[in-house]
Amino acid sequence: MTTAPIIRAQGLTKRFGDFTAVDDLTIEVVPGSIFAFLGANGSGKSTTIRMLIGLLQPTAGTIEVDGIDVLHQPRRVRDHIGYMGQRVSLYQGLSLRENVEFYAGLYGLSGAELERRWGALRERFSLGEAEADKTEDLPTGIRQRAGLALSTLHQPRVLFLDEPTAGVDVHSRGLFWELIQEEAEAGVTVFVTTHFLEEVEYCDWVAFIDAGRLIANTAPETLRRDYSDGYGISIDLPDAERPRARAVLENLATVRSTPTGFQLAAGALTPELLEGLDRIVAGARAEIRIEQTPMTDVFRRVLDAQEKPS
Amino acid sequence: MQDHDVTAPIQVRNLRKRFGRRLALAGIDLTIDGGQIVGVVGPDGAGKTTLLRALAGLLEIEADQALVLGHDLRGDVTRLKANVGYVPQSFSLHRDLSVIENLRFTARLHRLPQAQLAERAGELLQRTGLAPFAERASGALSGGMKQKLAVANALLLRPPLLLLDEPTAGVDVMARNEIWAMLERERSTSLVLISTSYLDEAAACDRLVYLDGGRIVANGTPAELRRTVALELYRAWGDDPRLIARSARALPYVAGARATGRFARVEVRQSQSPGTDRVLDALRALPGAGVRLAEATAIDMESTLLALARGTLT
Predict the structure, then answer these.
(1) What is the CATH classification number for the domain harbouring A262?
(2) Do B170 and A274 touch (CB under 8 A)?
(3) Does A140 lie in the same domain as A43?
(4) B60 interface with A at CB cutoff 8 Å
(5) Beta A68-69 vs A60-65: how paired, if at all?
(6) Are A112 and A181 contained in the same domain?
(7) Cα torsion for A16, A22, A26, A28, to the nearest 10°?
(8) To the nearest whole angstrom, how far is the Cα of A84 from the nearest Cα of chain B?
């Protein structure tokens, strides 16, 4: 990828007295990607985000967000970013519409421009019915969507979302991720934290912080390859088809015969392997099942590897 | 444990709870046997928290029958409360007391002998990894440690009934493991009711009670609930799963499609499905989507809960 990173943090360190909360962290985020930033409670995630958005001065290191030197121009970066915290920052006692007007005022958005922008968001985020309600009366899922809508009101180039889906039900989480993916497809860069590890599958990149240090920084697929048994693939197909299938498969993965067909083990699902499998399945009406290690288990292994260095 | 009834610990019929004009529980019928972990699931605002609080004896309710551990929720619930471990959604222990002081405080409230406290607290702190932080102020613990302490505190007296309201929301995977390891150990002697929005936790429950609009919509083992889902689930693998998902949504019988990892998850309404082979062929032939492999797969917890939320059941 030749595109210059839109977020670049180098040697980022934050100490509170004797305690090092973030220790020499270096990350780069590709524009228009969804970047998952994960870690245990107390691992330094929120401290890192607060530094990236210019709310906290690092002890050492440099940060650049959308071409802006965050350390020296922390206020300027705020026009370029949207932020949504663990507790959505909507003012209680105000209706959603009043919150919109309040935030729009902060960004200098008003009149026809505000109506156009909010009108589009209200429609896309299905917030029309909630507009007149006091924000404390809104169900969690709608409140989260409203928080996301407000954080994109000024059309920021980068969104920082700190546990946006915590405590949100599975249906609302699904809707929320569809919106996040749409933002990314429209070119917005999304920097997101979560404890729902299966949500990493919706992201392009994953960084994992443990005790202030980065212990993984890679594509989700690479992490799965390195910290799981890869993929288990079982294929059921008629006897007559098996010799032809075996000939195709043996070049692609480790193949074991089973009473009903084959069992394959593969570290990664390469395009060649997928197409090889599809040729067998399509030709013979075979049945195929692909088992992948859940991300939750992948991360348990990542953490175990930290505790027991080989 | 003197009050522990050998019959079903929870026996409620037509349980109702009204907040002003809003009916938060609209007639709950529920009989649950002990010795299992029961997940309370459902959308935000479904009544999960209200149900757990009602069963803990914390709310005035109406019902035709409302027996919890043999105590009537409509009468004096003082003795019930001594036998229930309840963990509310927000951290409610004393922030200015240390970890061990909080446990001591709970023990004294319930007149637990000193020797028993020392043994039980030591064991729980060990299992939760909180032992090195025993002297730390609870308010200064990380989110995950606070929740482990809250659950440990609820387990201190070995109550026959545990009611846990989203104890793992916002908690990291290792701390969740430790909380679940504690619950597993109680499974044989207690009834555990836990509300959760994690799919892996819902799948790990012996039984799920799905609430919506203050009513029980489904009640069964995870496998039983999966069988009621009127959807077929497919996976279409390729280089650009988001593009595949978008193209798949154009198929008339597709109920939903989302990119996840290397594939698009595609849900098809059973009533409209043209049959597995034809769906697979259609997915392979999605124009310009670059599907390299299409596969039919078993309904999982995600599809089960989504189908319950959307009402796509048989």
Answers:
(1) 3.30.70.120
(2) no
(3) yes
(4) no
(5) antiparallel
(6) yes
(7) -100
(8) 15
Which of A139, A170, A292 is closest, CB to CB, to B306? A170
Q: What is the interface pTM, i.e. ipTM, of the complex?
A: 0.82
Q: Which of B279, B311, B309, B302 is nearest to B226 (CA)?
A: B302
Do residue B171 and residue A86 have CB atoms under 8 angstroms apart?
no
Q: Domain range spanning residue A84?
A: 31-47+77-206+217-225
User: Are both A237 and A263 inside the same structural domain?
Assistant: yes
Among candidates B171, B197, B242 on the partner chain, residue whose Cβ is nearest the Cβ of A168: B197
Instruction: Please give the average per-residue pLDDT across A22-30, as a whole number.
Output: 97
Q: Check whether residue A266 and residue A165 sit in a common domain.
A: no
Residue A62 lies in a domain: no
Residue A8 token pair: 């670049």
Token pair in block for residue B243: 């593009």
**Nearest alpha-carbon partner for A238 in A253, A259, A221:** A259
**Residue A54 located in a structural domain:** no
**A41, A141, A173 member nearest B171 (Cβ):** A41
Residue B306 or residue B209, greater confidence: B209
Q: Are residues A186 and A233 located together in one domain of the fold?
A: no
- Best mutation site among A173, A175, A195, A248 for testing chain B: the one with the most B CBs within 10 Å? A195
- Residues of chain A with Cβ-Cβ distance to B238 below 8 Å are 274
Q: How far is B62 from chain A (nearest CA, A)?
A: 24
- Per-residue pLDDT, B5: 45
- Asked if the model's pLDDT at residue A15 lies above 90, the reply is yes
Least confident of A48-57, A292-301, B1-10, B241-250: B1-10
Separation of alpha carbons B259 and A249, rounded Å: 27
Beta-carbon separation of A271 and B174 below 8 A: no
DSSP H or E segment with residue A232: strand A231-236
The answer to whether A193 touches A36, Cβ cutoff 8 Å, is yes
- The model's pTM: 0.87
Number of domains in chain A: 2
Q: What percent of chain B has pLDDT over 70?
A: 97
Instruction: Give the residue from B210, B246, B247, B292 with the most A CB atoms within 10 Å of its CB, the best one to mutate.
Output: B292
Please indicate, yes or no, whether residues A92 and A235 belong to a single structural domain of this protein.
no
Name the one residue in this structure whose structure tokens are 């169900």: A139
CATH of the domain at A171: 3.40.50.300
